[in-house]
Automatic annotation (TrEMBL):
Superkingdom assignment: Bacteria
Pfam families hit by this protein: CCG
Annotated Gene3D superfamilies: 1.20.1050.140, 3.40.50.11810
Alphabetically ordered keywords of this record: Oxidoreductase
Species of provenance: Synechocystis sp. (strain ATCC 27184 / PCC 6803 / Kazusa)
Identification of the protein by name: Heterodisulfide reductase subunit B
Domain Cysteine-rich: from-to ranges: 7-88, 157-246
GO molecular function: oxidoreductase activity
Keyword Oxidoreductase: yes
Length: 301
């Protein structure tokens, strides 16, 4: 039997706001798998990569504090947001290196944390994403044993997003240019992985505020390519990618001059369906693009 898993849970901002269904799905999935999540309610926003535009020290200090909160619990820090994972894990890598090469920098950061009555950063915790936790910690063989609703016949196309593959020096993926972790999860659940150009590229979210047409064209190209490859749905480990590809898909369709209607699922929603969790408990009724075609194909409507 698998050893009970426990994590310091960093939900991130988006899963507590615009993508509230992601928090629901992660909570339901962890309960079904017997994974204990201790939410870091005092944690701060990771900055989504924007803090460092003003100050690297700011990004490092804020996220050193987030990591220190997990260290106080003697637990690895887990998030279901690839952006949060990329930012926090990259800070963790940088500070662990600085402990050897520039200890004064770490002391400076810990000085700021002390002023805020925070515990110091020690570099003792691991930062991981829900995807890595499922594949590496829980294990695909153990996950296969929990499947109650096989996803046989469902064609799933991955959309990894940027930060999950490019922010860290050390990745669980053997080849970040051709990752396989999501596809391994799909096959474990009985689904068919769909490969298409764009699954490891940017969704266009970072430029959407100032180059909206170009952002939508980029996202639209990925959606069109996935549809042409036979995808029934996209599955992403990134809530920002989900916002772009799901909530803005009607606008993207208008820019392209054609409707798309491709459901976009969060990773824990897909896994949750295979575990027999009720679709409403996973928040699948909260999406902009209806997930009904996915549920219908699985005989769940």
């Amino acid at each position: 039997m698998i050893t009970a898993l426990e994590y310091a849970y960093f939900p991130g901002c988006v899963a507590q706001g615009a993508c509230g269904e992601l928090h629901l799905a992660t909570t339901a999935l962890s309960k079904a798998l017997g994974i204990k999540l201790l939410e870091l309610k005092k944690a701060s926003c990771c900055g989504s990569g924007t803090f460092k535009e003003d100050s690297q020290l700011l990004e490092d200090s804020v996220n050193a504090r987030n990591i220190a909160l997990a260290e106080q619990l003697n637990l690895p820090l887990l998030t279901h947001c690839s952006t949060c994972q990329g930012v926090i894990a990259h800070v963790d890598e940088r500070l662990k290196k600085a402990q050897k090469d520039d200890p004064a920098y770490v002391e400076q950061i810990n000085g700021y944390l002390k002023k805020e009555s925070c515990a110091p950063y020690r570099g003792s915790s691991r930062v991981t994403h829900l995807l890595w936790a499922l594949v590496q910690d829980f294990g695909l063989e153990a996950l296969a044993q929990r499947v109650r609703q096989s996803l046989t016949g469902l064609n799933c196309a991955s959309f990894y997003g940027c930060y999950l593959l490019r922010a860290q020096e050390n990745l669980p993926e053997a080849n970040p240019f051709d990752p396989q972790s999501l596809e391994k999860v799909f096959t474990t659940l009985g689904a068919n992985p769909i490969y298409y150009e764009g699954r490891t590229q940017c969704c266009g979210w970072p430029i959407s505020s100032y180059a909206t047409p170009q952002s939508f064209q980029l996202a639209g190209r990925h959606l069109q390519t996935a549809i042409a490859a036979g995808a029934d749905c996209l599955v992403t480990p990134c809530p920002l990618c989900h916002l772009q590809l799901d909530s803005r898909q009607p606008e993207i369709g208008q820019v392209l001059g054609q409707p798309l209607n491709l459901p976009v699922l969060h990773l824990p929603q897909l896994v949750g369906l295979a575990l027999g969790i009720d679709p409403k408990e996973l928040g699948l009724d909260r999406h902009v693009v209806s997930t009904t075609p996915v549920l219908a194909k699985l005989g769940l409507t």
